[in-house]
Amino acid sequence: MTLGFRQPFDSRTEEAGREYQPFNHNRLRRFANTETDHMHKALEPTQDSRWILSHEGYNVLSESAVESRLAFGHGFLGMRAARSVSRGPTWVAWLGYSRWASWPRCYVAGLFDVPNTEPPVAALVPVADWSRVRIQLDGEPLLEREGEVLLGTRKLDMRRGLLLSSWTHRTPAGIMAAGRELRLLSLSDRAAGLQLIRLSLDRDGVEVRLEAIFALAGLGYRQT
Length: 224
What we know:
mainly beta; Beta-galactosidase, Chain A, domain 5; 5-stranded antiparallel β-sheet; 2 helices; 12 strands; 11% helix; 32% strand
């Protein structure tokens, strides 16, 4: 991917004693490279492996357990380690025996309600599924069940209090997409979460569309 910079307007003045320097492209490039370096460093886990819980691969039978084992939180917010990319929406289960491959959930401490169940028992209420990201390549959605997942790793960095993910996916059209993600629940602002995603493709000329969907958990609403 190439970033383009627009030539700024360089106005001149006859104001006495004031000198105007021409626009410094090299300085802007150095700034952009510095920001990229910061992003790369943020996506790297803690070097001491004793702080890291890691899981590689994907299996529909064990996915729910992995999401629970790598869950993270700070006492006010808590979140399961569900994949954010390449999964579809989780619809309302009208049938009691429905089993979802992924069960994304984010909870707020103390937020309870009584669902329409028998017997009626108060339960934690999941808030919006804010981590799901929908990516389309040349108009086709990037989904785990279509194509081939060549690599998939999730790491819970307990020293920094965040979840790191990396994956490589070959689509049915042969496009190779590689992604890395950082997700955290902030300790400085305990009501805030952060998601950072880096996506790279093995070729140019691919139309990429990214949708960050903020939908109510479990309702399966689609953005229109």
